[in-house]
Design a protein that fits this description.
This protein is mainly alpha-helical and about 100 residues long. The protein is about 55% helix and about 0% strand.
Length: about 100
C-alpha cells in the first residue's frame, strides 16, 4: 500500500521537475523584449498616470502614440510645454513600424 503511494509521489515529482526544466528552457527561447522606442515615449511623458488623456496610464498613451492611434501633441493635458517639446522631438527622431517618423501635430 505505502509502496504504491511512494511510487506515485516519485512519479509526480519527476514529472514536475521535467515540466519545470522544459518551461525554463522555453522561457529563454521565447522571451520578448520591450520596444525601446515606446520606453522613450513613456520617459518623455510626465508619468502621472492620471487618465486625463483618456488612457488609463502613460504607458497606454505611449503605445497609442507609437501605433498611430494618437497623433496630437496635446494628447497629454498635464505635460509642460518643455515636456511637450521634448515629446515632439523624440517622436520625430524615431520611426514607427512602417519606417515613417512619428509626427505629432
Amino acid at each position: 500500500m505505502w509502496s504504491n503511494i511512494l511510487i506515485a509521489c516519485i512519479v509526480m515529482i519527476s514529472i514536475s521537475i521535467v515540466i519545470g526544466v522544459i518551461l525554463a528552457i522555453a522561457n529563454t527561447f521565447f522571451i520578448t523584449k520591450d520596444d525601446d522606442r515606446i520606453e522613450g515615449i513613456i520617459s518623455a511623458l510626465p508619468g502621472y498616470d492620471c487618465g486625463a488623456c483618456g488612457y488609463v496610464n502613460c504607458e497606454l498613451l505611449a503605445k497609442a502614440i507609437f501605433s498611430g492611434e494618437v497623433r496630437r501633441k496635446t494628447a497629454c493635458v498635464v505635460i509642460s510645454k518643455e515636456g511637450q517639446d521634448q515629446l515632439i522631438d523624440y517622436c520625430y527622431s524615431i520611426n514607427d513600424d512602417s519606417g515613417q517618423p512619428i509626427i505629432l501635430k
